[in-house]
Amino acid sequence: MKNEAIAKLLKLIAADPQKWDAYQKLAGLMLQNQEFHAAEQYLLQAISLRPDLLELRVQLANLHMRTQQFKAAHECYKQAIALDAKQSQLYYLDARALKNLGRAQEAILRLRTAIKLDAQHINAFSECTDLMLQLQQIEPAANVLRQAVAAHPEHVHFHYRLGALCMQLQQMDEALQCMNQAIRIQPDFADAYHQRALILQSQGKPQEALLSFDEAIRFQPNLPLPYNNRGVVLCQLGKYTAAIADFRQALQLNPGYAAAQCHLGLALYENRQHEEAYPCLETALKLAPNHAQARYTMSMLKLARGEYESGWPMYAARFQVLQDKFRPDLTRLWPSSGSLVGKTILIWAEQSLSDTLQYCRYLPMVQACKPNHLVLAVPDALFELLNEYWAHDVTILVVRQDGHSMPHFDVFCPMLNLPAVFNTLVDTIPANLPYLGVQPRHTEPWQQLLGPGRRLRIGLNWCGDASNKYDHLRSIPLFLMAPLLNMEVEWHSLQKEFRREDHIMLKRFPMLECHHPELTDFTATAGLIMQMDLVISVDTAVAHLAAALGKQVWLLLPEYPHFRWLQQREDSPWYPGMRLFRQGDDESWEQVIDRLHQAITDLLAQQHERLIAGK
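-> structure tokens emitted (615 positions)
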């Protein structure tokens, strides 16, 4: 039949070469036969006869698009637009040609014109948004979608896409409105529930976020991402068991999901399931070797195990995980323990006061690398203590970390990098005690106040900073200390501040002498510590200070303490002579204090025996 039609059209043209519509029909038949060159020639012939006919220009342009002659297609669409500049579709079609030519910005202008001429052109809105996003024009793309939403208020995906862009722009209130509208239009829209949950999470509304994650999972139960993200919120709420179940479900759906594997390891770590966390994080790092959170958490597990050779270098991942707005430029890091001759090095104290007191022991090792000057930047709370201690050394300048400009320096080393710089292993820890001291003017007032000790004099520190994430694990209520405080011992509180409940208990324990009004800074605390025979403390800066001063310290540790205390040991290679009283598996603080009571009893007995032997 096609051949007969072609033959008839050819006869018509032979009889009347001016019959442009015959050429047009022939072109259509050639297209059906995929004879594109012939179709093009017939259309060109028709256009030569009717150059003012719009449909011929569009047909030829569409043919060029089909044969991927995009430049020729663009020229034809331009000619069509010149014939009728009011047709929205022509601008839309020309935009497609320009897009294929890699002329995205010109295509965007064509699509904007198409939208202006016809706000009902849904595809023009969508493709204009796509092109803008390819060019990273986020705000203009959002504005186009706002037009789309206004023109098509019941088009669910316009609301959803606008919401997603508002999230990128941190315009969370509008993003939430968009996702709510998408859900109103399509109540089973799982992706909209998921994004809504992320918005609520960012707004500090974790409980509402969980409800929205629940809906996302209910409508689309086979996607791993919502399980992972719900697990993250559950971790934020401290609901680690539920979070672990979500991360496991995400991994069941996608075994290669590195983020879920990392989050599982972190949740197990926070849930104090360290032995299970270790292989999870190993797997996570095989899937994503540079995942910062996985490396950071794994480093703490390694360091707790005493795997210092691999743990310290991995601990550098903390820079990507922890926030420190005053940290100097890491590109100027001191990478090794090589010579510092002719250079000034800045040692930057980081993280807690305990860390600064623990790791300042490395300063003599840095000095051995012969820098011209060493600048030590420390928290304000430790400035007086450390500045006085190194005041005699003109090569060391102690400054406050107050956010103001630092003195000139050539290289920089965060204090907790020093163990890695010096390749510290468990048996090479620099542990010569004491490595700090305090001036007589801080000890003499305490000597005069306390006088000679008639009994064993013990300093007690039972709680730390309540804002610490793990304080609920390490601090001990004062009332649990009652069995100790009733012993024949001279007790002194080393606490600078008390909890509200402590004030009530202190009235019941008059045998515990409190000095908090005089403990104005760490130099005063150090002066008091020097009068003690023994310091008993939970894991706070006071314990580190006492040990660094060379005093005997007994440390009370929760079942899963900071990695610095290693695992299962009753001593510390960081502080020779320190004695660790650890909570055992499911052991209460009362049981630990019972053991401590027995240890003090033994110490008193030994003291009594020495007294008798001396007589």
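The chain has four domains: 2-234, 235-322, 330-428, 440-614.
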